[in-house]
Structure to design on (1283 residues):
């Protein structure tokens, strides 16, 4: 058991013994360290003004990621390197290429969102060579600007590659930092706290399993993209936090031949390419979940365990026929994912049990998968409706297999049993699809709220089935507004 | 284009014969290097004085209720709490309203009138403690009937928060009755949250003898000063208000900062300790006012060619529980209900309705946008009725360009439009955007597209420049020249990102012919320049630029007089050129001249003052010349709509905007692009959603969606109108640019409407309401399809 939090703030090793388990990185920076360049815009991970860059070891490679400091707990930085906007200027006061590009392109007006944009751009600059427009939009989707209309910031994202030598970037300092972070690595449980509250961060699955048996009321935290808000918005006091992010075994994606076994600690960012390779439209869905900062922290396991009726991966995973692996101590069980969601706010998870992995079967030949995320805004928005479909037609053009799952339509992510039954075995025609659309009305009784009315949700859910039909039957029809249009007819 | 580098991005090197940062040059924002390094200081970044208390507000949970009792002891006894303040603790007047109507208490005492209304303030050692404590009050309410919507207010007692206004020209009823065609309808337009990235914040530091220094994120330091003095019952001279910069304002910090400043001032004055108040984002949403939502009933009469004969409009606005700026906002809606169109006869009326919701306030455009959306709806109605392209009807109805000969230049407020450039501006944009070819292309696309539909619209903007409260059209400045030649600049305007300090510094640099880097803009401070007007109504550079110019000229004239006398030349032989001064054939640096002048006891500091000429307004009569000039612009937008889901993207936008002779084209382009995107957000995805209890449920960025990076137009061509100096003697013939581009966002709304109209063969006006969320677009498509079926011959 190690009772000292260790991380690098820039080049400076920080070792902290007493830390509030839910102290955010942002509050630590602004209130304790008086490093006030990082701003609070919303304290819910939705505006990006607080964006910082965290360097972490992925295997032996140092990876830099933009994250929201406002909902990230300080103690989760153990073994990492934290970079803030104050780290960018050179010792001679020269602006970093990212900063210089923002100045040259008139990328700031009021300047309050600017440090966050600069840090998102820094992560992009450090990780990717000359990204295309789509990639820049994605990298900036989690940063809101109310002044510029974004155009000059996007121009800066292009222009920054023409300034300075990226390969020897002073801030990145990759080789040296990777060694320093390796030296911090250990297999001990981190246990830090203050005022009788504990932050526990195991390094192995057995440690995690035991800690949860020993601390049955503990709050399990993975990416903190939801739990962070319990703290910042509702001021909830969490006596014991068990953080899964140090458990390297949970951050693995294993190819089992017939399926991918995705560890519960795998972030959206880490999972995206693997999932997209099997189900391209699932990849497109992940591209639109949260934004870069959220995807860098949030995990697929957390998205499931959290049990939200509007989480976006559960409907897609259910449509794909995924199973969930839960573990309690030594005891492991697996169940079809849809059976995990019992009711609103209620999941089939016992005390001391945790989500260990989700098993995503590979698509059989001829499977067509589509996912549609409907919201007021394309990026960084919670779905009003999220629909996912897995369709297989037989040689006669009849529906040999269909799985339909929706988020936002019920108290849990839920399959459309009625519509599936109507469609199964029928010829895949507009007439059948219209019958399926009618059957959907019996599958769901959605609510009205600020995201959408019940009527809109029902209409759109049915229309998405029609969209699936058009995309699988009319290769000439244009159906997509965003993302890779080729996915419509893939 | 997103992937293309536009060549004008990098500011060109100054020509050798010009100073660096002269007027009309694209100069970077004076704080840009500090923005990008995190060194720019906002109020929450100022080092806190020792012993500072953190203040938090206790809010009403009810929309309309009598307060039966309040038990604050749990608050008082919460950890870290030092003091709790209620209405009883206010030494002066418990009122923070900006209009002197005494309808906006700092703290509600017996009656709450909206959810989120402050009832008390708690001061604690940490912000976390204050936030926790504020939730602990036990308030017993007796609920009263709550009026939450425009419909409920209009159908009920129609209580108004402030007197309505009527503008009338000609005999509207007679013109409507005599017109060959008549249409009437109703248009609903939603409100808008400012969503400045920096939430409201104030910090008060007590001094001696009742003095207070207040750091606050406000557009109106002088009003804060007055309100604080009024609440504390101290003279205005005891209160100094300072603003270095805001993290965005957009009108949301014109009056809404009064509350936060007054609260911290109260705590500081009563405890003797500095006090700071920063609401979290959810509370900021609930406590502060927003853009007014409107329901507009319109009637229009027109002839076979689409020429308007008469218009009648009633503008019902949700004002909220108090007046705030609802009077001038609804007035401005009427002033812009013509947009760029001549109404031979019109009667326009406002209805600022009282509701049990937060008191709505200023927001970029200040009612003007809602008026203009109504004008554009009327145009669309005519176009659909006559089966013509809306652009044709728009052009047909523009004001005349020559008041002497056209006879089509009189506004509904009896000001004659003398500077109309819309016909040529729109003609130019029509050409550069390829409007008519694209109209054909889109028709062809739609004919062959099963699910996606495209739409196109070109909409104009004409926006009146000046505060309609005439006395606001004044400004002061203070310029100091130091003996090393460096210059401090202060003026009454505030910096909220719009680049005001940059532009005014360019003006001063131009006057002294020194590089702008020699000019140091300083924080706006009521102790330096008193009795300032709000930085609002797009007026910042017009007013403060002129005032600073006057101050600089005063000093320059003293220097000229000194040099002429000292070196024995005629005054016109003294020339300021590129950091040098020529006195006859003798040349010296600016600093050398200044030092010599100082030794000769020449005063090197001066104030400047400016008031806008020519304007006057008689509200009761509905007549006058409220505007010094008009700013113009137009935008052409193309969208694609998914008819299965109502989602849409903005494919391309072309803008041509009139900045006169721009003071700083780069900054103006930023205002145009940013204003456009904000205006587009208002009319599309930004939706304020209250529940049946009057609680705002979209109160943070997780639920209230402003445009994100990828929502900007995929192709975005922005141009400033060239060779179009302001016809009035504005500061270097530039034009105000803060608000006018906001309304260019209307083009997206009308392009959406156009795409929707395609599902019924463009035979019916879709009557799309705003905000056009995907849900509203889909509902409009469904309704239009039904109407198309039922209207089949």
């Amino acid at each position: 058991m190690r009772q000292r939090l260790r991380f690098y703030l820039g080049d400076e090793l920080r070792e902290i013994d007493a830390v509030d388990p839910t102290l955010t990185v942002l509050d630590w920076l602004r209130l304790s360290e008086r490093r006030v360049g990082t701003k609070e815009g919303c304290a819910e991970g939705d505006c990006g003004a607080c964006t910082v860059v965290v360097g972490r070891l992925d295997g032996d490679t140092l990876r830099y990621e933009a994250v929201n400091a406002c909902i990230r707990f300080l103690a989760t930085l153990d073994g990492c390197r934290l970079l803030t906007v104050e780290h960018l200027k050179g010792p001679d006061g020269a602006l970093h290429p990212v900063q210089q590009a923002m100045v040259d392109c008139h990328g700031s007006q009021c300047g309050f969102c600017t440090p966050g944009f600069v840090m998102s751009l820094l992560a992009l600059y450090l990780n990717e060579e000359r990204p295309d427009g789509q990639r820049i939009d994605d990298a900036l989707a989690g940063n809101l600007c109310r002044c510029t209309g974004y155009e000059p910031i996007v121009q800066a994202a292009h222009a920054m590659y023409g300034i300075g030598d990226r390969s020897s970037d002073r801030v990145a300092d990759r080789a040296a930092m990777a060694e320093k972070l390796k030296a911090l690595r250990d297999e001990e449980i981190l246990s830090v706290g203050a005022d009788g509250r504990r932050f526990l961060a195991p390094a192995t699955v057995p440690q995690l399993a035991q800690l949860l048996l020993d601390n049955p009321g503990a709050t399990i935290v993975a990416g903190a993209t939801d739990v962070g808000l319990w703290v910042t918005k509702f001021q909830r006091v969490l006596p014991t936090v068990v953080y899964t992010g140090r458990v390297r075994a949970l951050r693995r994606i294993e190819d089992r031949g017939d399926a991918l076994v995705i560890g519960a600690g795998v972030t959206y960012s880490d999972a995206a390419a693997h999932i997209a390779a099997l189900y391209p439209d699932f990849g497109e869905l992940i591209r639109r979940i949260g934004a870069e900062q959220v995807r860098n922290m949030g995990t697929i396991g957390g998205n499931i365990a959290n049990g939200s009726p509007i989480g976006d991966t559960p409907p897609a995973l259910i449509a794909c026929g995924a199973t969930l692996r839960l573990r309690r101590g030594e005891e492991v069980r697996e169940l079809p994912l849809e059976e995990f969601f019992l009711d609103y706010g209620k999941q089939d998870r016992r005390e001391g049990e945790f989500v260990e992995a989700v098993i995503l079967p590979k698509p059989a030949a001829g499977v067509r998968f589509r996912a549609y995320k409907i919201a007021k805004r394309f990026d960084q928005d919670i779905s009003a409706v999220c629909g996912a479909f897995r369709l297989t037609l037989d040689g006669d053009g009849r529906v040999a297999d269909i799985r339909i799952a929706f988020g936002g339509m019920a108290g849990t992510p839920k399959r459309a049993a009625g519509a599936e039954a109507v469609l199964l075995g029928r010829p895949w025609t507009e007439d059948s699809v219209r019958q399926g659309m009618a059957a959907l009305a019996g599958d769901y009784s959605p609510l009205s709220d600020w995201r959408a009315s019940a009527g809109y949700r029902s209409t759109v859910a049915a229309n998405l089935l029609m969209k699936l039909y058009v995309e699988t039957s009319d290769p000439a029809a244009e159906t997509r507004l965003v993302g890779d249009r080729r996915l419509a007819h893939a | 284009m997103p992937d293309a580098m536009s060549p004008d991005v990098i500011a060109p090197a100054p020509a050798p014969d010009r100073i660096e940062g002269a007027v009309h040059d694209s100069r970077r924002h004076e704080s840009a290097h500090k923005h990008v390094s995190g060194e720019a200081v906002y109020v929450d970044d100022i080092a806190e004085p020792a012993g500072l208390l953190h203040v938090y507000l206790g809010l009403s949970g009810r929309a309309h209720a009598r307060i039966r009792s309040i038990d604050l002891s749990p608050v008082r006894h919460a950890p870290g709490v030092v003091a709790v303040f209620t209405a009883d603790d206010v030494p002066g007047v418990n009122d923070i309203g900006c209009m002197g109507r005494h309808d906006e208490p700092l703290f509600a005492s017996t009656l709450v009138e909206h959810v989120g209304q402050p009832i008390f303030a708690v001061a604690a050692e940490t912000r976390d403690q204050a936030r926790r404590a504020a939730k602990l009050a036990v308030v017993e309410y007796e609920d009263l009937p709550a009026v939450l919507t425009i419909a409920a207010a209009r159908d009920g007692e129609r209580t108004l928060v402030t007197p309505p206004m009527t503008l009338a020209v000609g005999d509207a009823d007679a013109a409507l009755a005599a017109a060959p065609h008549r249409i009437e309808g109703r248009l609903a337009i939603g409100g808008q949250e400012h969503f400045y990235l920096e939430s409201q914040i104030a910090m008060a530091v007590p001094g001696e003898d009742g003095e207070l220094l207040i750091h606050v994120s406000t557009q109106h330091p002088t009003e804060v000063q007055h309100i604080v003095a009024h609440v504390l019952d101290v003279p205005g001279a005891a209160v100094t208000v300072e603003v270095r910069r805001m993290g965005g304002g957009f009108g949301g910090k014109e009056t809404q900062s009064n509350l936060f400043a007054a609260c911290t001032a109260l705590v500081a004055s009563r405890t003797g300790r500095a006090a700071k108040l920063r609401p979290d984002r959810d509370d900021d949403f609930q406590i502060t006012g927003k853009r007014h939502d409107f329901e507009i009933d319109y009637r229009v009469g027109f002839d076979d060619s689409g020429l308007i004969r008469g218009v009648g409009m009633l503008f019902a606005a949700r004002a909220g529980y108090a007046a705030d700026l609802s009077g001038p906002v609804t007035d401005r809606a009427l002033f812009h209900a013509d947009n760029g169109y001549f109404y031979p006869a019109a009667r326009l009326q406002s209805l600022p309705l009282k509701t049990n919701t937060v008191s709505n306030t200023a927001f970029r455009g200040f009612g003007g946008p809602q008026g203009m959306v109504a004008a554009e709806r009327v145009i669309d109605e005519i176009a659909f009725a006559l089966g013509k392209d809306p652009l044709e009807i728009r052009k047909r109805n523009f004001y005349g360009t020559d008041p002497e000969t056209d006879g089509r230049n009189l506004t509904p407020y009896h000001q004659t439009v003398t500077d109309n450039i819309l016909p040529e501006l729109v003609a130019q944009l029509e050409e550069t955007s390829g409007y008519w070819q694209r109209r054909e292309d889109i028709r062809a696309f739609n004919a062959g597209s099963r699910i996606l539909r495209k739409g196109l619209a070109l909409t104009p903007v004409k926006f009146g420049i000046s505060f309609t409260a005439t006395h606001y059209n004044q400004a002061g400045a203070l310029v100091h020249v130091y003996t090393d030649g460096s210059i401090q600049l202060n003026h009454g305007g505030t910096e909220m990102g719009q680049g005001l300090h940059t532009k005014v510094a360019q003006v001063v640099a131009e006057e002294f012919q020194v590089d702008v880097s020699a000019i140091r803009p300083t924080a706006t401070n009521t102790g330096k320049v008193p009795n300032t007007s709000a930085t609002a109504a797009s007026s910042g550079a017009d007013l403060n630029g002129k005032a600073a110019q006057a101050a600089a000229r005063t000093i320059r004239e003293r220097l000229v007089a000194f040099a002429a006398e000292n070196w024995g030349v005629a005054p016109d032989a003294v020339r300021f050129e590129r950091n040098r001064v020529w006195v006859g054939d003798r040349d010296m640096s600016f600093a050398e001249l200044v030092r010599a002048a100082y030794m000769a006891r020449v005063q090197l500091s001066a104030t400047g003052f400016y008031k806008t000429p020519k304007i006057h307004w008689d509200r009761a009569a509905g007549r006058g010349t409220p505007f010094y000039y008009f700013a113009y612009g137009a935008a052409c937008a193309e969208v694609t709509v998914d008819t299965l889901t109502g989602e849409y993207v903005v494919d391309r936008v072309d803008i041509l905007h009139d900045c006169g002779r721009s003071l700083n084209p780069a900054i103006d382009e930023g205002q145009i692009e940013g204003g456009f995107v904000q205006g587009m957000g208002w009319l599309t995805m930004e939706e304020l959603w209250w529940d049946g209890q009057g609680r705002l449920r979209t109160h943070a960025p997780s639920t209230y969606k402003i445009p994100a990076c990828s929502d900007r137009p995929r192709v975005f061509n922005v141009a400033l109108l060239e060779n179009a100096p302001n016809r009035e003697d504005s500061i270097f013939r530039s034009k105000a640019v803060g608000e006018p581009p906001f309304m260019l966002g209307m083009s997206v709304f009308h392009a959406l409407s156009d795409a929707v109209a395609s599902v019924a063969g463009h035979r019916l006006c879709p009557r799309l309401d705003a905000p056009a969320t995907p849900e509203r677009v889909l509902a409009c498509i469904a309704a239009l399809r039904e109407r198309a079926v039922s209207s089949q011959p």
